[in-house]
Sequence to fold (613 residues):
Amino acid sequence: MARPVLFLACALALFACSSAVASAEIVEHSFHVQNLTVHRLCHQRVINAVNGGLPGPLIRVHEGDTLVVHVFNKSPYNLTIHWHGIFQLLSGWADGPEYATQCPIRPEHSYTYKFNITGQEGTLWWHGHVQWLRATVHGALIIHPRKGHSYPFPKPYGEIPILLGEWWNANVIDVENQALATGNAPNNSDAFTINGQPGDLYPCSSHDTYKLEVVYGKTYLLRIINAALNNQLFFKIANHKMTVVAVDAVYTSPMVTDVVLVTPGQTTDVLITADQPPASYYMAAHPYASAAGVPFDNTTTTGIIVYQNSKPSKPLMPALPAFNDTPTAFKFNSNLKGLVNGPHWAPVPLEIDEHMFVTVGLGLVACGSKKATCAGPLGQRFGASMNNASFQFPTKLSMLQAFHGNVGGVYTTDFPDNPPLVFNYTDPNNSFNTSIVMTTKSTKVKKVKYDSTVQIVFQNTAFVGLENHPIHLHGFNFHVLAQGFGNYDAVNAPKNFNLVNPQIRNTIGVPVGGWAVIRFTANNPGMCLDAALSPGCALAMGPSNRHCRRERAHAFHNLATASTRSTPLLIYRIVVHFSTGRELNCTFVIVVFSNLLWFLFMRGRAKLSSCFQ
Ligand SMILES: *[C@@H]1O[C@H](CO)[C@@H](O)[C@H](O)[C@H]1NC(C)=O
Ligand SMILES: *[C@@H]1O[C@H](CO)[C@@H](O)[C@H](O)[C@H]1NC(C)=O
Ligand SMILES: *[C@@H]1O[C@H](CO)[C@@H](O)[C@H](O)[C@H]1NC(C)=O
Ligand SMILES: *[C@@H]1O[C@H](CO)[C@@H](O)[C@H](O)[C@H]1NC(C)=O
Ligand SMILES: *[C@@H]1O[C@H](CO)[C@@H](O)[C@H](O)[C@H]1NC(C)=O
Ligand SMILES: *[C@@H]1O[C@H](CO)[C@@H](O)[C@H](O)[C@H]1NC(C)=O
Ligand SMILES: *[C@@H]1O[C@H](CO)[C@@H](O)[C@H](O)[C@H]1NC(C)=O
Ligand SMILES: *[C@@H]1O[C@H](CO)[C@@H](O)[C@H](O)[C@H]1NC(C)=O
Ligand SMILES: *[C@@H]1O[C@H](CO)[C@@H](O)[C@H](O)[C@H]1NC(C)=O
Fold:
């Protein structure tokens, strides 16, 4: 279990103990990933979970701490743990994405993740990163301000993680494998959950419904995390307003709302005050399903807020937005503003070195051999695509090892800055336009120089269907300058860019049939050749070469012990290298989650023959 180990970094440092690093600690955990028998929805099931809990262990650190997690894989599956949203400065090899930064940890093997958490505070989370294991292998990762620092809002009376999850009455790996075998979309989930429990609206679930007791008059910080696999979720509490104060571990200007929208991977911190007549109130979540005509799990999960000393009462239920309420979703997302000059605030870069325009959506990949029968539209396979490239996982080496070892033939560096064909991206008439809907598999990378500023316009396409696609950047936060519907207007849209106080985050849902503009600086600074192992790092500006070599040796040792072959990634990525223009390169990764996309990724899996032989 958790074994926080304290030591004073200042004792080792040459400078005075009063410096900011004086309070840095080492926080150490052991994760035993193993079978766990649970009862949900009238069924008994064996799931994979960490340390016997669903959700798994809550990790608490302070900004500036070092986190060490020993992962013991006692599950029957290969796995890695991804530290969603952590910058991983100088420790990119510890980020977790299999075949990007490490090989999976095989059953009966272990691996130690070690990294510093600097320059960010708030709510993040960790999750399993091979196949669909993250459905049950996940937990909250909370970064408190350094000792002596405070929140940019009054200290709440209580802080409560609210993990929204997704539940199948089946082994999730079976669900995934069945989809692979049949070519059909994976089965929809059977429930959503709040802190592991579906709640009163599902059969056999009332007894275990998540309950939060509150004291009248007090204010609480709810740290809402969307740990669902495929669904964006609306979250609401009966009769209580929420004040959003942070998203993705970045502070926001306080925003009062009665509904929150969270995309898979995102987090939202809200303050609520227990100022209603003492009684019981439901908190509830159900999907925001933007793709018209695509079946989804339309159930609703609930938890109960119970006022201390209130008479037992039937909880009041909030009225959630309709499943397809895009105006409410858009209003929530576009009204969020950054907290200018708040802790860790970063101003918007005004000079742009790299302009990218990237279409995001589905496409079709040729069925392949003449004998094969494919169950996708037009008898083809689904294939998610960005700028008409559908990502193919390497088959021999991870991209990082290929980069490090200068091994050719694993990827190409020609990911285009613009779509190869300009067309009416959001015209539903193009959904099955056979002259343009086909795409092909490739492993394309975009290189950018260290410290360059990058602007990316993400444009949803109508291929197969319009859908809101969440996009997650590994190793960076980005500013969200603008979002809108229809085709991006390069002349007029920039006039409305928010260059003053845009929200900063690591995951964004690109509006259905619309676009979003993000900006970031490719400055996740490495100091050595860990560049080669990192999803983001770079310039040799810090510690000595000796330090560099040690870090690198350490990384390779870890990789070697954890490594071998396994199934490739199930999520779709564009891997973007950035480099100093000299010998150092870095990689960052854009991840797209979506119901349909998950399916496509699976279809696109290649058989890996080796990894780090
Ligand atoms: C874990 O559960 C799986 C599936 O039920 C089973 O095949 C396996 O034997 C179990 N492993 C252990 C160590 O109990
Ligand atoms: C992590 O923090 C420790 C203690 O402050 C420091 O010694 C170490 O160099 C840092 N490591 C990285 C990779 O930044
Ligand atoms: C998926 O759903 C179908 C239809 O309900 C069912 O027959 C099948 O067993 C399910 N697959 C899994 C892996 O649960
Ligand atoms: C959920 O979907 C089912 C099947 O399509 C439908 O019968 C049911 O009315 C829907 N429930 C809600 C709350 O929309
Ligand atoms: C299909 O797309 C091409 C290229 O944009 C366009 O010329 C053609 O008119 C489209 N076909 C239909 C049926 O919309
Ligand atoms: C693109 O398609 C949309 C949706 O059908 C339509 O409203 C719009 O007029 C089209 N734009 C152009 C330039 O044809
Ligand atoms: C889409 O197709 C319909 C029917 O063919 C046509 O009336 C309409 O003008 C088309 N829309 C666009 C934007 O091309
Ligand atoms: C994508 O590339 C395929 C060839 O691989 C081509 O047939 C198709 O027209 C292209 N579509 C777009 C939108 O660029
Ligand atoms: C895990 O990885 C090993 C080695 O690459 C591979 O042989 C095995 O099939 C993988 N196991 C699963 C369940 O995918």
Notes: Residues 545-562 form the longest helix (18 residues). Confidence is low (pLDDT under 50) at residues 1-21, 525-613. The two ends are 33 Å apart (CA to CA).
